[in-house]
Each structure stands twice: as structure tokens, then as C-alpha cells.
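In response to reviewer comment 3 from the previous cycle, which asked for concrete evidence that the modeling workflow produces usable outputs, we include below a single protein chain processed end to end. The sequence was submitted unchanged, and the resulting C-alpha cells are shown without manual editing.
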Amino acid sequence: MSTSRPKTPPPGLAQGNLARSPLTPEQIRKIETSRLKAKALREQHEEAARKAKPTPSLNRTPSGFSTTSSIQKRPHSSISTSNTPSTLRDGRSATPAGAANDGGFKRPRADGDIQAAQKFTKYVEYDFSKMVDTKGGFLTAEDDPHNKALHAPGNGEEKPAHMTLAEWERHQLLRKLREQKSGPFEPVLSVLKKEESKKCRECGGLEIDWKWDEVFGCVVCERCKEKYPDKYSLLTKTEAREDYLLTDPELKDTDLLPHLSRPNPHKASFHNMMLYLRYQVEAFAFSPQKWSSPENLDAEFARREVEKRRRKDDKFQKGLKDLKKRTRFEAHRRNIAAGGKAGGEFGDKIGTGKHRHEWGRTVENEEGVGIKTCIECGMEVEELEF
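The workflow returned the following C-alpha cells.
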């Protein structure tokens, strides 16, 4: 009995996969004829389409080259890729800004603003290709529209981006004149209504300081302000507080004492100065509401000076007493550390802490060399004589 197993037939001989016979010369000739017919038919269709589409006439030179004026550029629509077929994952599809399409993707905003990610509200992904390189490592207000610190409401002292330097200076000048009510913003003096016009309280003139009239309610002209400085000079807040002994709540009350704000001359970042009119400060300080008279003000000023000197002397005496106490404690501590002998007795020499040798007379030893000995510490040195 044979033990050999039947073998699988080769793939080429399996059913349905029979080996192909090579093409005959007749079949090759028919295939080549069909290919040439299809090529000729395609060329006929292309020629017919070319004739149906009008082509611009080209002006050619005698050498056969076309002139530059006859050449026309192709339109952008013919070479643009904007007409690509949209798919579910195509970001160029016409989806409303900020809305999700079928694929779950959001189209960026049309205005170019940068929006924070949905999961990271504090994270903003910046498009550096659209930013201005400031060469300083910081972002401009235009490139960072979501920064609250850059877009915080300011005091309006910075020049706007749309203004030139000359326009900004003109705007500053007009604003200053408007605040001071001078120049073109000065109220008009009417000759027909002299009875209703405001007049200077000193000379009766019509050319008054309108800014002082608005702030202090004082109708006075520039000439009288310079003529009577004891009444119309301006006092700072510190002078009014120290000279007339007024308190901060009284100085901050605009109904009681109006003040004029001016930039601080010492530093621009400091608070504005508060200037008060002298005769108004004196009128309130000498009124029954405060000190009633200049004599009472002088008496209160003297009393405060005496109290100030007394407090200063008390502070000095307290410091001196503390110094004596600490000195006695330190001496007592040193005495205890030395076994109660640090104080010494009457007639003992008090040193400065640095020892100085006091040499006795020179004595020759057995070898004939002169030796001097310190009386206090007993140090010996040799002395040579030449």
C-alpha cells in the first residue's frame, strides 16, 4: 500500500485559472488599429472644440514671434483652486463663521479676530504671520484685542493711532484753551448788556478770569490778582494744613473750600496739586466754625508747638534711660563673667583694651646679652648694642 498523499495541483492548473495563450499576430494588429482610430477621433473632437471657441488674433513679427501687446494673461478664475469639490472635512466649505459643519470642524471668523479655544478659555493661539514685529518682545493693542490691560480705559493722554503729531499737538492746545476758557473759548463780552456782565470785584473791569469764576466763584481780573497777592495768591494743601491748622476732611470738602487742580511740578506721576485761594482759606479759618480769630489761631499754634517739644523731650529722656539701663546691665554681666573682680579697686589703671609694653632696665644674662623685661606682661626681648 502506498503511503504517499495526493498533492495539490499547481495554481496555473486550478479550475478558473487556466493559463492564457499568447496573442496571435492578427489580434495584435486589431488592437493597434482600434487605438489609432480612437486617437484620430479624439483629435477631431479637440479640433472642433478649438474652432468653436473664438481665439484672439495674435500680432506677430516678421520673424514669427508674437508681440507683447497681443499677449493676454489668464484670468484668476481659470487657475484658482477655490472651486474644489467640498467634502465633509473641507475647511473651505461655505459654513457660517463660528458654526460647526457635518464633520464637527469650525470655520475661523471672517474678521480675523483670535478667539480662545473652547476647552482653554485662558489660552489664545496667536497667528504670528499677521502680527507686527515690534522688536521689543511685546504685542501691540491691534494684535492683541482680547488683552484687558492693553484696552483698559485710560486718561486720554496718549496719541491716537490715526492722528499725526501736529494734529495731536493742536488737539492738546485746543483742550487746554477750552479748560482755561481763554482764546477762542473765552465768553463773549456784550456791550449791549453791561448790567448783566460780570465785573471785577476790585476794579470793576470786564476782563475777568473765567476759570477762577468757574472754580472758586471769584470774579477778579488778572491785574488785580497781581496787585493784591495777600488776598488772591494760591496756597497748596500742605500750606493750608500747616499754617491755618485745617484738617484733611475740611480741605477735601469742595462746598466748603473749592480748589484748583494742577499737575504736580515735582513728578508727573504724583497726584495733582490742590490749590486754594488765600482769602477763602482765611475766611473759613477765622470764622466761628474754626478758630474765630487770628489770636485764637496763634494761641493754638503755640500750644501745639509746646506739645511737640514736650513729646520730643519725653522721647529723648526715654531713650536715654533705656541706654543707661542697658549700660548698667552690660557692666554687671562683665563683672559676673570675671568672677566679681572686673570692677577692680581704687587706684587701678584703666586701660583702653590695647596693651602697651613698659620695659624695665637692661640686664645682662650669663652669655653677656642684654635683656629687657616688660613690667606688666613679663615679656623678654634681647637688646644688642653696636
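Residues 294-337 form the longest helix (44 residues). We consider this sufficient to address the reviewer's concern, and the full set will be provided in the supplementary archive.
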